[in-house]
Amino acid sequence: MAGKTYRQAINEAILQEMRRDSTVILLGEDVAGGTGAGGEGDAWGGPMGVTRGLVSEFGVGRVLDTPISEAAYMGAAIGAAASGLRPIADLMFIDFAGVCFDQIVNQAAKYRYMYGGQDKIPLTIRTMMGAGLGISSQHSQSLYPIFSYFAGLKVVVPSGPYDAKGLLISAIRDDDPVIFCEHKALYEMVEDVPDEPYTIPFGEANFIRSGGDVTIVAMSSMVHVATKAATELARQGIECEILDPRTSSPLDTESILESVEETGRLVIIDESGPRFGMASEVAAVVAEEGFALLKAPIIKVTPPFVPIPAAPNLEQLYIPDVAQLIVAVNKVMES
Amino acid sequence: MTQKPYLHIPRPTARPGEVPDFSYLKLSDAGAVDRPPVTEKAKNIEYLSHQLVRVLDEQHEAKGPWDPSLDEAALVKALRYMVLTRAYDDRMQRVQRQGKISFYIQSLGEEAISIGQGLALAPDDMLFPSYRNQGLYILRGTRLVDMMCQCLSNTGDMCKGRQMPIMYQNRDKNIFSISGNLATQFPQAVGWAMGSAIKGEKHIAASWVGDGSTSEADFHYALTFAAVYQPPVILNVVNNQWAISTFQGFAGGERRPFAARGVGLGIPGIRVDGNDLLAVYAVTCWAAERARNGHGPTLIEHVTYRGGAHSTSDDPSRYRPKDEWAAFPLGDPMDRLIQHLIKLGHWSDENQTALEQETKTIVDDAWKEAVSFGTMSEPPFLDAQLMFEDVFKEMPDHLKRQRDELLALTGDTP
Question: What ipTM was assigned to the predicted interfaces of this complex?
Fold first, then answer.
């Protein structure tokens, strides 16, 4: 056990799975990143350095830099999966899903089903999402709810290094396509992470903090906003229970309802949009199955319904924050 | 001489009521095109993308360096599968007209491509077919009754009622499924071939698109990948002149042959008479040998003609001359093979009549068996719970709950 960053945890998960299983390959734009350039780690391993060092150990035949064509390497990864390999496709930004959407949602997601269960596509799509770097709305969106719409896809949204490693190993070993959504603002986050491989099951929420007054559902980087708000609120005498579903598909609705049963109040904070997003979905589940448990209307804390601006001050206003969450929690406490 | 900029709207050479005109097709004489060694570099064989490899001449004799010298048994086998494919198509087209299946797509006039290529490839080679490649499934031993059950979405359907008619699947015979979204299988085939190379195997992949689908981005992406990684793959464009009602000019076929799409990327492109089984077979063997021996991908354009409608949802008499197929200079692939066999003394009209009778009986029997598994209106019907299976390898809780709710409504039990 040692302190490791989110970046290191993800790198370690890939490294260990590639050592354990020779059918695991990694492909995408710049995943090797300067193969043969020499120096430390041989290559820089993508814009965030997440895959650094992998090409030196596994070679260019298993860590493949690809031409700039998301649709082609997604399609190729599906074909490679059908050939018996277990590919990890690196979609540099989740925003780029627009150019390979069909391969993900109409091809990978549906093969097992449409063809009578004869085929499996054991594909992991690693991708990066989230605002905070000033790179605007073609590189900063939290689009994971879009993929959660599709039957046949599993969607993982890890909030820290420990979860990232365990969930990524589960994703790579899974026989169904998984979208693994890394938040770009979390790569430097440090947490104790076991050295040995381990898995975390999908569809099991993590209780981050217990408290009897309000349930806060948060995923990815919003978990940390929720934690800060809860510490502050505790000083005011309001005890928040924080739940991180960890995967949006499958979604652990049972744990959410269980918590709302205890608290009677629900606030959802999420970086995906205010309409048809994660917060809307969780609100709908609780309204439908737990309406009688509620002492107050549900509140969603989400960004405004606008594209993500680039200017740092505007971007910070866009991202849901501690102050907004505290206001929302105080409001549900009024009833 | 100056000219104003103008918008060129491609127009087919003939619309209904006009005289068919195939003068735009550049043909070569049978036997006239050189056959380079498989080791030849792409830049030295660009001529293959402009000429047309043909083996059978007007007198139905095999000519030139591409003659694969198939023996009598192989030729008869090929004919047999072409006749069977056409008999199957004929029956399925009719049962769709009778309202017994919802949709169908024939391969009329294009049978030599699936059969010729299927015979040239090895059983372990992976096929990513298009929707007009039913001959591949039949040749690889998919039972007609299974294919009919798929079209009926009945209890015998290998897809369990989850895929529209004609999108068959046969994993055991190394044939991937068909996709309704066009050209998506081109990058998948390239990826499969990359997988084969990564594993150090000698299996190759092949995929098919129509002339119209070469406009799809996936076609171009796949060619780029094939050019970069040099995987063992054969990429086929079946140029049957028509994409539903738009002729091949709308896919850019007026400027350069589709085979030439590979040339700019350094992939050998080769244009072949798609209605000449011997030429299709020979060209495919050449491409397969290249792929299997580490010489990389090949793009093959098969020049053919779509003998029937695009599908049972369109009426070609509204957009092309009724007699256009009869005027097509490359004829009917089945007739041409029959005439070749007759010329060789291996076949007769009596043989042909007997074969057609035999295949009709095979198809009749298969249909009788297929409908015993249920039709769109007659039981047995598929179990409702099948709707919830195979979404994932293991059924998640939310699907179990939804299944149980639905079954409670229908009065069934899981």
Answer: 0.87
Class for the domain spanning B42-371:
alpha beta
B160 vs A84: CB contact, 8 Å cut-off? no
Give the pair of three-digit tokens for residue B75.
């030729």
Please tell me which of the candidates B218, B221, B390 has its beta carbon nearest to residue A117. Answer: B390
CB proximity list for B190: less than 8 A, separation 6 or greater: A72, A75, A76, A79, B205, B222, B225, B226, B229, B231, B233, B235, B297
Q: Which residues contact B9 (CB under 8 A, 6 or more apart)?
A: none
Question: CB–CB of B224 and A72 under 8 A?
Answer: yes
Question: Rounded to an integer, what distance in angstroms lies between the CA atom of residue B115 and that of residue B88?
Answer: 14
Per-residue model confidence (pLDDT) at position B27: 97
Query: Start-end ranges of CATH 3.40.50.920 in chain A?
Result: 206-334
Calculate how close chain A gets to B402, using CA atoms only, in Å: 13
β pairing state of B205-210 and A266-269: unpaired
Say if residues B105 and B166 touch (Cβ distance below 8 Å): yes
CATH number at A2-193? 3.40.50.970
The three state secondary structure string of A43-92 is CCCCCCCCCCCHHHHHCCCCEEECCCCHHHHHHHHHHHHHCCCEEEEEEC
How would you class B135 by CB atoms within 10 Å of its CB: exposed for 0-12, middle for 13-18, buried for 19 or more? Answer: buried
By the 10 Å C-beta count (0-12 exposed, 13-18 middle, 19+ buried), A184 is classed as buried
- Strand, helix or coil for residue A268: strand
Residue B57, burial from CB neighbour count under 10 angstroms (0-12, 13-18, 19+): middle
Element (H, E) at B188: helix B185-198
Class of domain A206-334: alpha beta
Cβ of residue A77 closer than 8 Å to a chain B Cβ: yes
pLDDT at A335: 83
Region(s) of chain A under CATH 3.40.50.970: 2-193
Distance between first and last Cα of chain B: 78
For a pLDDT cut of 90, what percent of chain A falls above it?
Answer: 88
**Pairing of the two strands A178-183 and A206-209:** unpaired
Contacts of B339 (CB under 8 A, 6+ apart): B60
DSSP 8-class letter at A136 = G
Contacts of residue A68, defined as CB under 8 A and 6 or more positions apart, other chains included, come to A29
The residues pairing with A301 across neighbouring beta strands, listed in sequence order, are A269
Average pLDDT for B27-48: 97
Closest by CA position to B94, among listed B108, B80, B110: B108
Spell out the alpha helix ranges (H) of chain A: 6-20, 54-58, 70-82, 101-102, 111-114, 144-148, 161-173, 222-235, 253-263, 278-289, 312-318, 322-333
Q: Distance from B185 to chain A by nearest Cα, in Å?
A: 7
Q: Amino acid letter at B183? A: A
Helices B72-97 + B349-371 axis angle, to 10: 50
A178-193 pLDDT, tens digit per residue, is 999 999 999 999 999 9
Q: Which two tokens stand for residue A103?
A: 């391969």
Q: What is the largest CA-CA distance in chain A?
A: 63
List alpha helices for A264-321, DSSP H: 278-289, 312-318
B281 is catalytic: no
pLDDT in tens, B185-244: 999 999 999 999 999 999 999 999 999 999 999 999 999 999 999 999 999 999 999 999
Tens-place pLDDT, residues B322-334: 999 999 999 999 9
Is position A224 annotated as part of the catalytic site?
no
Q: Domain ranges in chain B?
A: 42-371, 384-414
Strand partners, A271: none
Q: What three-state secondary structure class fits B406?
A: helix
Cα–Cα distance measured from residue A286 to residue A253, given in angstroms and rounded to the nearest whole number: 8
Mean pLDDT value across residues B116-133? 97
